[in-house]
Amino acid sequence: MKGALSNQQTLRLKYAVELRRARVEGPDSDRPYVGLENIESRTGRLIPSATTGAAEGEFVSTSGESLSALFEEGDILFGKLRPYLAKAWIAEFNGRCSTELLPLRPEKIHPRFGLYIVLSQQFIDAVDASTFGSKMPRADWEFIGNLPIPLPPQQKQSDVVRFLDRETADIDDLIAAKQQLLDLLAEKRRAIVADAVMRGLNPAASLRPSGIDWLGDIPAHWEVERSRWLFRERDERSETGTEEMLTVSHITGVTPRSEKDVNMFEAESTAGYKLCFAGDLAINTLWAWMGAMGIARVDGIVSPAYNVYTPGPRLLPDYVDALVRIPVFAQEVTRYSKGVWSSRLRLYPEGLFETRWPVPPLDEQQQIVEHIAAETAKIDRLRAATEHSITLLKERRGALIAAAVTGQIDIPEAA
C-alpha cells in the first residue's frame, strides 16, 4: 500500500486474512443480518436499523437477503460495493451479511489494525480505482486480496491500535458535539420559521382562537381562510418538454434538477409535463405527507403526477413557502390525503382545498418573510462553519489513521 515505510514489513492482504466463503439461503433467526446500510462510512461502527436497539441482534434484521454470507465474531466485514464509502466493521457477534460485504477472518493481523488498514484512504483509493460497473461500482476479492498492506510486528500493531483508538475517540467526540450543535441549529431554525408564520412578530399582539387544531391561537387581526379561496390549480402542459425540470422534496423544496447531484430516473420525453412558474406552489402528491412541497423560484416543469397551484393576491409566495415547509403543516395535509397505506398517501387538489390557512395582512406577511430571511441567514452561516469544521476533523481522522498504519508517525510503546 502506498505510503508504507521501507523498514516496515508488507504482505498481501490475502495472506494476512482469510476470506470466508460460506453462504446461506433465506432468513435465519439465530444469525442477525447485517447489510451495507447498517455500517457507517469511515468510522467502523454499526448503525441501528429500523428494528434497532443497542443489544446484539437488535441492531439488524433477522430476515435479510435470500442469499447471504456467514461471518463470525471478530471478522472484519469490508464493503466491496461502492468502496469509496469506506464501510468496514469488526463483527461483535456471529451473523449473516450482504454478499456485497467481504467477511475476512484475521490470521496474521490484529483485527483492529486490519480495520484501520481497510479504512485508510490509501487502501480505499486503491480499491475504488479497481471497480467495474458505472451505476453499481464493485471491486472483487482477487484484486483486493492482492493489495500489499503494511504489517509491523504484533506488538507494534497493538501499539498503533491503542494510539488510534484513543485519538480517533477524541476526534469522534468533537464531531459528535458539533453534530449536536447542528441538530440544535436545525431545531432553532424550524422554531423561528414556525413561530413567525403562525404567531407573527409582535409578542404583545392580542390573540384569538383560530379554530384550527394545528394552528392554535393567532393574532386577533389575522384572518383564516380555506385554501380553495386562496389558490387556483394550474394544469398547463409543456408542448416540448424542453423547460427546466424541477424536483420537489421535503428537504430542499422546489429546486432545478440540474442543481441536484443525484442519479434520478429520467423519462424518455417530458413533453406533456406540467408547467410550473416562479411563485407557484408545487406539491409532490405522493410525498406531501413528508412535507415535499414548496414555492418554485424559477420557471420550469414538474412531473404530471405532481400538482401545481398559483397563490391568489392575498398571499405572498415567500410566506406560502415558509408555511408549507414547517412540519406541523405536513401533518395537517396528511389528514386530507388518501391511500390505504400511511406511506402511500396522496394529496389531491380536493384534499388541499379543504385545508385552512392563516392569512396575515400583506404588509405583515412581507415583514415575516424578511424576518425569517434575516434570522435563518445567521443560522445558516453558523451551520456552514460548523459543517466545515466537521469536514476538517474527518480529514484529520483519516490522515491520522493513514500515517499511523504506515509507520509515518512515531507511536510510543505501551508502558
Task: Explain what you see.
Helix content is 33%, strand content 19%. The chain has nine helices and 22 strands. Strand 6 (76-79) and strand 7 (88-90) form a beta hairpin. Helix 2 (111-119) packs across helix 9 (362-405) and helix 5 runs antiparallel to helix 9 (362-405). The two termini are 30 Å apart. Mean pLDDT is 92; it is low at 50-57. Residues 69-180 form the Type I restriction modification DNA specificity domain. Keywords: DNA-binding, Endonuclease, Hydrolase, Nuclease, Restriction system. One of its GO terms (molecular function) is DNA binding.
- Looking at CATH, which topology of the largest domain would you report? Adenine-n6-DNA-methyltransferase TaqI, Chain A, domain 2
Query: So what's the oligomer here?
Result: single chain
Largest sheet: 4 strands, antiparallel
Shape: elongated
What is the top-level CATH class of the largest domain?
Alpha Beta
Number of strands: 22
CATH architecture of the largest domain: Alpha-Beta Complex
Continuous helix count: 9
Intertermini distance: 30 Å
Please indicate the percent range of residues in DSSP E strands (runs of 2 or more).
15-25%
Number of domains: 3
Write down the overall mean pLDDT.
92
The CATH superfamily title of the largest domain: DNA methylase specificity domains
* SSE class: alpha+beta
Q: For the largest beta sheet, what order do the strands appear in spatially?
A: 2-9-6-7
Helical fraction: 25-40%
Low-pLDDT sequence parts: 50-57
The rounded Rg comes to: 27 Å
